[in-house]
Design a protein that fits this description.
Layout (H helix, E strand, L loop, with lengths): L2 H20 L5 E5 L5 E3 L4 E10 L9 E10 L6 E11 L7 E7 L6 E11 L2 E6 L3 E4 L19 E5 L5 E4 L15 E3 L40 E3 L35 E7 L6 E7 L1
Parallel strand pairs: 2-9, 12-13
Antiparallel strand pairs: 1-3, 3-6, 4-5, 4-7, 7-8, 7-9, 8-10, 10-11, 14-15
Length: about 290
Amino acid sequence: MTASFRAPARLALLLLLTLCVRLAHGDVSISKPLTGQTYEVSDGVAKVSVTWIESNAQPKLTDIESYTFVLCTGPNANIKAVKTLAKQIKASDISGYTYDLSIDSDVGQDGYYYIQIYATATNGWTIHYSNRFLLEGMTGSYEPTVGAVTKPPDAQTSLANGDNTMVSIDSKSFSVPYPSQTGRTRYAPMQTQPPTKITMDKSSWTRRFPTSEVSYFTSFSSSLAQVTTITPGWSYTISSGVNWASHAPDPSANGGWYAASERLTRTPTLTQAAHTPEAIVSTSTS
């Protein structure tokens, strides 16, 4: 392999490894409680387990220092904090990204609530909300409200920029096409998952985002033109399960095996040249 081919190959491998490392980290993405899940009061308390996963966004979960859990209700545009359930719980004290909360029955009436998770990181903070769940057997006087939507409120993030200034992220920033942004901090759209099948006719396909442009430096730059790119966390969760289907048999057991010689239509033979001692290879039709 020549040097001209080695460099692109190494660059491609480095890029692949970088992407793999990047996708292994992420911000809080709450997977439980599930939407509409019911929790009943027992002995004056409702037990609710909150679980979150990696969302492929900054800050990394390994950078989270503490979590605060608040019981909320109300529509997305008018969030009401009902009670702080757990405050400044150290991330090191939480195992497996799951935390069990106890909700006293006297904090409100039966109805729909959700959990706010306030996470502090080494370079800022984030706020995320769980799906709405139903509490039954409540004895309090506060009446919860739901609103017309079931999707959790939008997440909020505030992170330190490269020059240590705090950047409060507006969710509208992610809707601006990436090539149109000029700031030192730019915002990429949320990562989406492919559907199980494509139903749209290929002739009607359109590009979702405009093509990007690239320009090259002609000399070394004394400063960075861009510090970081921020990607929002997933607004969805991915569930997985065990595939209990029996494994496929080996090729020799399912009739798919064959000897390579059976597929040959021309076989190599050795012939002797008339005036030279060297054997040369020729082919004949079998």
